[in-house]
Specification:
17% strand, six-stranded parallel sheet, alpha/beta
């Protein structure tokens, strides 16, 4: 059965169990991860399954063939070592234009942490990191994807930090853009 979901989070910890399920449906799947942080910690505050660790678990278990991270603005030595260990491709904000040149061989799972956006565009997140994308740039990136999207998540929305509901409106817009892109390019389970 070819079911494609867009999951809305809480924190980024939801991505690991979702990908564990997707790996049973797809022999080969890649991830496009849009985030300010690589979320590759081996453990965070003693928890190997925290919001800061999902991509380490995903890569350890070989749930996907390829992980490309775009928009990264915080890469400490441990996470850099983890990225090298797992063969993760990182495109930081300084080199964002390189994201247009990514070529995919497999369907992708799209994981969007809202802190990939600059706090001016998405203040309703738990971990602000200045210097991020504009909402327009994120929409252009999604619209430019020329690969089937098997599933997606949009995570790290924190309504307590979004009193004017700016981020909530951004979430709705991103959700519509991802859904439209998913409908335009069919994906076959392998």
């Amino acid at each position: 059965r070819n079911i494609r979901l867009i999951s809305l989070g809480g924190d980024h910890a939801i991505t690991y169990p979702i990908l564990k399920s997707y790996s049973k449906q797809f022999d080969r799947l890649d991830i496009l991860h849009l985030d300010a942080h690589p979320d590759l910690y081996d453990s965070y505050d003693g928890n190997r399954y925290s919001h800061a660790c999902p991509f380490a678990r995903i890569m350890e278990e070989k749930l996907v063939s390829r992980l490309v991270q775009v928009g990264i603005r915080t890469l400490n030595p441990h996470q850099k070592q983890q990225a090298e260990r797992f063969g993760v491709e990182i495109i930081d904000m300084q080199h964002l234009q390189k994201a247009r040149a990514i070529r995919w061989k497999n369907p992708i799972y799209l994981s969007i942490d809202l802190d990939v956006l600059d706090p001016a565009f998405a203040p309703g997140v738990s971990h602000h990191e200045p210097g991020g994308m504009s909402t327009r740039r994120l929409i252009e990136l999604i619209q430019g994807l020329q690969v089937p999207i098997a599933g997606a998540d949009i995570v790290e929305f924190n309504p307590k930090r979004d009193p004017a509901e700016i981020t909530a409106m951004v979430v709705v817009k991103i959700l519509k853009e991802v859904a439209a892109r998913m409908l335009e390019l069919p994906v076959d389970a392998t």
